Amino acid sequence: MRTEALTRKQQQTLDFIQRYIARHATAPKLREIAEGIGIRSRGVAHRYVQALSDAGYIASNDGNIRLLADNPHRIDATLPLLGKIAAGKPIEAIPGEDQLDLRDFFGSNNYAVRVQGDSMIEAGIYDGDTVIIEFRETAENGDIVIALIDECEATLKYFQRSHKGRYIKLIPANKDMEPMVYEAERVRIQGVVIGQIRRY
After folding, report:
1. Which of 10, 26, 165, 178 sits most deeply, having the most CB atoms within 10 A of its CB?
2. CATH 2.40.50.100: does it fit domain 110-197?
3. Is residue 157 pLDDT above 90, yes or no?
4. Long-range contacts made by residues 52-58, C-beta under 8 angstroms, separation at least 24?
C-alpha cells in the first residue's frame, strides 16, 4: 500500500522505470536507471529504487524490479465491455459481451501521468486528469508533449520547434499563461499525449 508522496527524484526514477519497461519489456538495471535520471551513482539510484519499493510502487528483489499491479502509472487492467449504445436513439446495452483490455487500447509503449495544475485547461486537460503518453523522443509541432527541461523539471505543454531548430517553445493552453522558450538542447521529449482518462 502506498503511504507517502514521492520526491521529485523518486518520481523521476519511477517514470524512467515505467518507460524503460514499456519500451524494452524488461526492467532496467541500476546503472541504466542512474544514466536515465542523469546521476552517476548506482548507490543513489539504489536508494531511489528502495524508496519506491518501500512506498509500494514497485517490488525489488536482488536487483530485479517489477511494477506492482496497483501502481497508478501502470496500464494493466481490463474493463467489462457491456455492449454498444447509440449516441442518438437509445438501444439496449448487451451485458457480458466481452472485455476491453486497456493495454490493447493504449498499446504497450505507453505510460500514464496524473496532471497537476491548470496550464492545459483550454485543451480540455484539467487538474487531476490522467493523460496517456506514448513514449517518443521526438515530436511534431502542435503535439502535446511531456518535456523534460534541464534534466530536472517535466512539464505538459504544446510543442513547437523554431524554423531553424535552435529553440523549442512550450505553449500552455491557458490564455493567462505565457509560452516558455528554451534552447533546443535544454529540452528532452519524453512522450506525446495520445489519450486521456477522467473520473466524473
Report:
1. 10
2. no
3. yes
4. 52/6, 52/10, 52/13, 52/14, 52/17, 55/2, 55/3, 55/4, 55/6, 55/10, 56/1, 56/2, 56/3, 57/2, 57/6, 57/14, 58/14, 58/17
**Cβ–Cβ under 8 Å, residues 163 and 107:** no
- Mean pLDDT, to the nearest integer, of 171-186? 93
Contact (CB, 8 A) for 16 and 23: no
Extents of the domains making up the chain: 8-67, 75-107, 110-197
Cα 73 to the center of its chain, rounded Å:
7
* Distance of alpha carbon 117 from alpha carbon 134, whole angstroms: 21
Rounded Cα distance between 189 and 145, Å, is 7
Give the CATH class of 8-67.
Answer: mainly alpha
Structure confidence at residue 4 (pLDDT): 56
Alpha carbons 65 and 69: distance in angstroms, whole number: 13
Question: Contact at 8 Å (CB) between 132 and 139?
Answer: no
* Residues carrying an active site annotation: 119, 157
More confident residue, 174 or 91: 174
For residue range 85-105, what is the model confidence (pLDDT) as tens digits? 555 555 555 555 556 666 666
Q: Can you give 147-159 as a three-state secondary structure string?
A: EEECCCEEEEEEE
Q: In angstroms, rounded to a whole number, what is the distance separating the alpha carbons of residues 157 and 144?
A: 5
CA–CA separation, 49 vs 147, rounded Å? 23
